[in-house]
Amino acid sequence: MKLEDLFADPTRTRKPRDYGLTHVLDKGLSVAEVQGLVEVAAPYVDIVKFGWATSVVVQNLDAKLEAFRQYGIDVCCGGSLFELAVRRNRVDDYVAFLKDHGFRLVEISDGVIELEHKQKCLYIERLAKDFKVLSEVGSKDAQVVVAPFRWVAQIKSELAAGAWKVVTEGRESGTVGLYRESGEIRTGLIEEIEVEIDPKNLIFEAPQKAQQVWLVKHFGNNVNLGNIPPQEVVSVETIRQGLRADTMLTR
Q1: pLDDT band with cut points at 50, 70 and 90 for residue 142
Q2: Separation CA 248–CA 235 (nearest Å)
Q3: What separation in angstroms does the CA of 184 have from each of 10, 50, 73?
Q4: pLDDT tens digit string along 94-127?
Q5: pLDDT for 172
Q6: d(Cα 107, Cα 80) in Å, to the nearest integer?
Q7: How far is the C-alpha of 93 from the C-alpha of 129, rounded, in Å?
Q8: What residue spans define the domains of the chain?
Q9: Which of 155, 167, 193 is nearest to 51 (CA)?
Q10: Residue 129, exposed/middle/buried by CB under 10 A (0-12, 13-18, 19+)?
């Protein structure tokens, strides 16, 4: 008998899954680090995002793509790379690159560049014909506070345009978008969003442990969590399954 048979949470979704996703941020892992990650945590990783535009400069992209795919892990480039493609009028070339390299996911964001929301939705509609689209809502600027009703309206319109999931901005720091600069969760914002949007359609960026714990307690163990540091994947899974003090009494 395995410890998993004794203590694992039977309500936890298993891969391949549509919700309960763990979305991991890769800021430049080596192939050896990728192999180490999948060795211990492949069943718990659904998506790996190559952060911002790191995929432009890393020298091991193809090898990492192969390593992740061997374990049924989807990969995507950061939304900043899409924004760069828009800014430099290279969207067609970027799409061709993604197709040539077998990407199934594409992230579409407007956290840095100025992009009319209608135009963003047109990009989502277009790219959803060939990819599963992750669209991102929320500003990367801590000084920009978006009203809850605008979050809701943008999420609804992006899902209607064909987004598979909408990623709610938190950045790798967990100090913007859903969060205050201190990392504190904007609970009122999340509560207003969930009144209108099924949380299964959202991926909440939550790089900090306190944020992960709050979201699991609030939405349950199968909430979609994003921007998880690779070294925290196992920790997050124990939080989900009530195998850590923070959530043990909730399962």
Answers
A1: confident
A2: 13
A3: 31, 26, 30
A4: 999 999 999 999 999 998 999 999 999 999 999 9
A5: 76
A6: 9
A7: 16
A8: 3-250
A9: 167
A10: exposed
Q: Which residues of 165-201 are buried (b: 16+ CB within 10 A; e: fewer)?
A: bbbbbbbeebbbbbbeeeeebbeebbebbeeebebeb
Q: Which two tokens stand for residue 162?
A: 């064909």
- CATH fold, domain 3-250, is TIM Barrel (3.20.20)
Q: For residue 142, with 0-12 CB atoms within 10 Å meaning exposed, 13-18 middle and 19 or more buried, which class applies?
A: middle
CA atoms within 13 A on the CB side of 186: 25
Contact 169, 138 (CB under 8 A): yes
- Cβ count within 10 A of residue 215: 21
For the whole model, what pTM was predicted?
A: 0.96
Residue 77 φ/ψ, nearest 5 degrees: -85, 155
Cis status of the peptide bond prior to 230, with omega within 30 of 0: no
**Model confidence over 20-62: pLDDT tens digits?**
999 999 999 999 999 999 999 999 999 999 999 999 999 999 9
